[in-house]
Amino acid sequence: MGLLQNEMRRALGNPWFRGSMAVLTVLAVAAALYQVNTYVGHWQRVIAEYGNESYYYHTTFSCFNNWLPLRGANPAAGFFFVVLPLLVLMGYAWSLASDVRSGYVAQVLTRSTRGEFYKARYCAVFTSAGLLATIPLIVNLLIVACFLPAYMPRVTDAMYIDMGPTDLFANVFFSAPLLYVLLKLVVNFVLCGLWATMVMSLATVWANRVVLICVPYIALLLIKHVGENLFVAMRLNGYEHFGMSITLFDQLKGSPDNFYCYWWATLACAVLMLVVSIVVPYFRRKADVL
């Protein structure tokens, strides 16, 4: 237990984690203020423009509809999900590569087993990444809820938010929005936790922590770029239902950018990251310095 406590203290107390949390929280607050200003600051204009249209309901002003994951058009929200996969790595995913080079790991292993060390380090990296992914979202919802009512969303609100019928938990959102928020927080916590532990496991391959963080993030950007271009090409050739999100940039949102977000695709991504997190250190166990 002492090893786990020490790892959690190092994970949550290091300046990189605090800095990443500060950046993400500022973006979440900016996104919340943007939505509040859009509806509260321009209430009369909204009513004048849309008040007589039968498909525009007061439920569009719900705090749930204005939560950060459902507002991709919001500049701060869009940037939040672009930098999130990078900043969750900067929290503590680099720690194994750094500690191996500094000799810290060798010192710890004189007082514990390799298995105990890995369990504690994985738990700390997973938790720190999950907190970076969820705490700013909670702050965003609390700020929005202070100004906008908790109306029950209607299906017609899907025209104004990032939510489609194939999106994860879409049916839950329109029947129990608070439950949707909780489920989305859990999913984002797990996905970002697995993403960080997967990248940390690659420290047995790449000792340079800058390479360790940048290469997976750039690969994620390339996968999204290729996927978007392939999606457009297939659509132009008549394949209307082609397009599936396979990157964290889309999986962490309420709805991906011009993609479909099937539940089994999200599950497949989570399983893949879990497998890599376990398999890579296992096969590199004789090559590392642990």
Describe the structure.
The protein has 290 residues and is mainly α. The chain has one domain (2-283). Helices cover 66% and strands 0% of the residues. It has twelve helices and no strands. The protein has helices at residues 2-13, 15-39, 43-50, 75-92, 95-102, 104-108, 114-147, 170-173, 177-201, 209-236, 248-251, 263-283. α1 (2-13) crosses α7 (114-147) and α2 packs antiparallel against α4. The radius of gyration is 21 Å and the shape is globular.
Topology:
Blueprint: H1 2-13, H2 15-39, H3 43-50, H4 75-92, H5 95-102, H6 104-108, H7 114-147, H8 170-173, H9 177-201, H10 209-236, H11 248-251, H12 263-283
Stretches where pLDDT is under 50 for at least 5 consecutive residues are none
Tally of strands: 0
Q: Percent of residues in helical segments?
A: 55-70%
Could you tell me the strand content as a percent range?
Answer: under 5%
Main sheet: strands, sense, barrel: none
Structure classification: mainly alpha
Number of helices: 12
Task: Count up the domains.
Answer: 1
What would you call the shape?
globular
From N to C, what is the helix and strand string?
HHHHHHHHHHHH
